Amino acid sequence: MQSYTPDQLLEIGLKDLWYPLCPSSFIKKTPVSLRRLGRKLALWRDQQGVLHALEDRCPHRGAPLSQGVILGDRLSCPYHGVEVRCDGTVTRVPGSPGCKLEGSRPTFHFHIREAADVVWLYNSQEPVDVPPPLVLPEELTNDDEYGHFICYTEWKGDYRYVLDNVMDPMHGTYLHKQSHSMAEGDSSAKFGIRATDTGFVFEKEGQRNVNFDWTEWADTGTHWMRLEIPYPKTGGPGGNFIIIGSYTPISPTLSAVFHWRCRKLPKGWQRDTWRFLYQNRLEARHWHVLEQDRTMLENMEPDANQHEELYQHDLGVVRLRRHLKGLAQAQINSQQNSTV
Fold first, then answer.
1. What does the DSSP 8-state code read for residue 282?
2. Which of 88, 162, 177, 197 has the smallest set of CB atoms within 10 Å of its CB?
3. Domain range spanning residue 81?
4. Last residue of a domain, one of 87, 122, 157
5. Between 204 and 38, where is the model more confident?
6. Residue 279 above 90 pLDDT?
7. Are 265 and 274 in contact (CB under 8 A)?
8. Given this model, what pLDDT does residue 55 score?
């Protein structure tokens, strides 16, 4: 790891974590180039549909591998035909057979998983042969009890402002007060923080199942957030509307924003009914709410967090920022100690 301050490391994303990159549908029959996590990535599927990811840079002259040809688990660079395998090994240099580049492993490779309709990448500090398991919340893994839709978008600005926004339940009472599901409850509240096995919950005291009343932050080897919003009966069968969020830096001025809209419903007519209602009546309303968030965040100054006057409602934001800064400092210290 190069030398970073905690803020610089957080800007591009902590290391040794799983991050969502894009919906699975983004990657089809040709290689795709994505900028994420301070890197340019080349992603492709082999003949069996298995995903692979490399740095999008040929080790010969730096040409984009994503412009090349798929040869199973290899990409052939379009510039001089150099073939790079999914583990970063150069397997063939057709213009100079037997040269020292052949058999070397100069290209950074990444471990990829597909889950919950999304491509996930393990952002390892150093190449690893076996990454830790990708552990997601039950709503995204228990298909027998939960149904979900992925809502993906990209917002201008630092992804950490998106984290702040979700860790701020009180904004729902004001910014989204015209929403069909966030018009109820008190317009003032006191908040508390409750620790969990994987993180913490920031919640209103004395109000539950009325509005956007709490947010959970969790670290299970990937960072995700969870909240619930009560739904009227017109929203179809099932309990509260559950939202799982995870956010990835594209650049310091662009964020990949993932929200899974979930409902606890068994397979069968109830889930089918909800999915029909969601796609035909509810989805547009939810995108409208997201547009309110996007408009607010994109029109904030990049240094807005340097000019804040915080109060009790912001305890969750402060807790999360301190936690992330502590994780960044720990990674920097670990790297420095390993090089001594």
1. I
2. 197
3. 29-122
4. 122
5. 38
6. no
7. yes
8. 97
